[in-house]
């Protein structure tokens, strides 16, 4: 059985938490597509051309997700993500993942609009920039990294602007997506709403 759940939305809105929980619940595979852009961003920070890095990406580039979650890599990811050749180079892998037998959940910015426009379920997970900055701050501090709220908020806003304003595959809710605003929702409530949305389409 093929069944694709597309989850899009801005940084730290809860896509990853919801995506993992939905995948666990239904026994689907899960792909955090942001990691692909982060891996390209990390290679660019090491001096490589982003277009070349995207074409040369290997599973080893994804082997250390914690390193890829560093704030400078996040900013680099959103810079390489505006380059059409980079997005093209990552497209086939994401589509192939979505077509896995047994079901797949992909989260990112353009899954419901570009990568999997025919996904059975589309969710757009969002929250206010302030709430997302607070969540990202807690996550960074929980990992023992130093961070300040104002800096994290500025980073979130800069990334939101680049992701929504770019010409190729901008972040936008698909017309047929269900929007979940998690600003005042617990993770449990958001996960329950997402599972119910998938269940209703199965
Ligand atoms: O989701 P995450 O914060 O890890 O994504 C890092 C960056 O990668 C985003 O800010 C965005 O610019 C880019 N991205 C994208 N399309 C996706 C996933 C991520 O452009 N499907």
Automatic annotation (TrEMBL):
Keywords: ATP-binding, Cytoplasm, Kinase, Nucleotide-binding, Transferase
Gene Ontology CC entries for this record: cytoplasm
Intracellular or extracellular location(s): Cytoplasm
A Pfam family matched in the record: Cytidylate_kin
Family membership: Belongs to the cytidylate kinase family. Type 1 subfamily.
Domain of life where this protein originates: Bacteria
Record's protein name: Cytidylate kinase
EC supergroup of this enzyme: transferase
EC number: 2.7.4.25
Catalysis: reaction(s): dCMP + ATP = dCDP + ADP; CMP + ATP = CDP + ADP
InterPro entries linked: Cytidylate_kin (IPR003136), Cytidylate_kinase_dom (IPR011994), P-loop_NTPase (IPR027417)
Binding site for ATP: 9-17
Gene3D superfamilies (alphabetical): P-loop containing nucleotide triphosphate hydrolases
GO molecular function terms listed in the Swiss-Prot or TrEMBL record: ATP binding; dCMP kinase activity
Example of a GO biological process term: pyrimidine nucleotide metabolic process
HAMAP family in the record: Cytidyl_kinase_type1 (MF_00238)
Domain Cytidylate kinase, first and last residues per copy: 5-199
């Amino acid at each position: 059985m093929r069944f694709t759940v597309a989850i899009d939305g801005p940084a730290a809105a809860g896509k990853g938490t919801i995506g993992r929980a939905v995948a666990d619940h239904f026994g689907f595979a899960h792909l955090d597509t942001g990691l692909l852009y982060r891996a390209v961003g990390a290679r660019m920070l090491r001096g490589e051309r982003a277009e070349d890095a995207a074409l040369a990406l290997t599973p080893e580039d994804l082997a250390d997700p914690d390193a890829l979650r560093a704030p400078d890599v996040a900013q680099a990811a959103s810079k390489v993500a505006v380059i059409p050749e980079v997005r093209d180079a990552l497209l086939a892998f994401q589509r192939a993942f979505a077509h896995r037998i047994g079901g797949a959940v992909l989260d990112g910015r353009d899954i419901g609009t570009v990568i999997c426009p025919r996904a059975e379920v589309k969710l757009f997970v969002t929250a206010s920039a302030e709430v997302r900055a607070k969540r990202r701050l807690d996550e960074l501090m929980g990992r023992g990294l130093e961070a300040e709220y104002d800096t994290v908020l500025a980073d979130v806003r800069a990334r939101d602007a680049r992701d929504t304003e770019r010409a190729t595959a901008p972040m936008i809710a698909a017309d047929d997506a269900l929007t979940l605003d998690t600003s005042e929702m617990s993770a449990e409530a958001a996960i329950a709403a997402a599972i119910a949305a998938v269940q209703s389409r199965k």
